[in-house]
Model the fold of this input.
Amino acid sequence: MIEKLKLISEGKAKSLYETSNSSELLMVYRDDTSAFDGKKKEALKGKGIINNKFNAFIMEHLSKNNVETHFIKLIEDNESLVRRLDMLPVECVVRNIATGSLCRRLGVEEGIKFKEPLFEFFLKDDDLGDPLINDNHITAFGWGTEEEIEKMKEITFRINDLLCKLFEEVGLILVDYKVEYGRSSGSLLLGDEFTPDGCRIWDVETGESLDKDRFRKDLGDVVESYQIVAHKLGITL
Ligand code: C5P
Done:
């Protein structure tokens, strides 16, 4: 067991604590689930444990494939040890199929499959509804350097290649996802989480959503759907 010292941030689904090692943090996955910039909230029993183990599996897979991440190890069912990062205030989204905010924003048809994955930056700001931004906003406001922008794109596309393949092998489609990065000793590392809370996963046979859209759209069986995905990927819960 690693002692939780000061609570340094309480996000919508995770809490971060300092540990006795100043360069390592404890990430606690809660059952809390939120959507629409925190306007819809509910605690879904068992989700914290699934997401913690799901994230560990994905982070380890990425790490094995030379993507540097903040993940160190699983500590408890709902706790992981991670490297402390200085997070960039941006979200990186990659889309393989058009859905969600993209369709609302551009009035485009749902389900268009892109020839090349589409990359978007969003500013992390709930009060502003996480607006879409471009590379120039990032450099103009000093949220990141040109080099960091290129690195975020390169790593996020690499993650897409690796994870599309991983999901495809078990009959799942990775539709889109969001990742975040942070700085640690001069390098940029993948931070935050990769779980069904932050991506869209469809069953290749039925087209059924097996991710947080089940919560957003009141489809029910949210945790059960995350469990199905975890089971298909061979994650031990
Ligand atoms: O809502 P939107 O279509 O832009 O979401 C794209 C992808 O990014 C989805 O997989 C969604 O779950 C994820 N996302 C997220 N956190 C946000 C915004 C989007 O995890 N704040």
In short: The radius of gyration is 17 Å. The domain at 7-83 is CATH 3.30.200.20 (Phosphorylase Kinase; domain 1). The pocket of cytidine-5'-monophosphate is lined by residues 91, 93, 100-102, 130, 176-178, 198-200, 212 (CB under 6 Å).
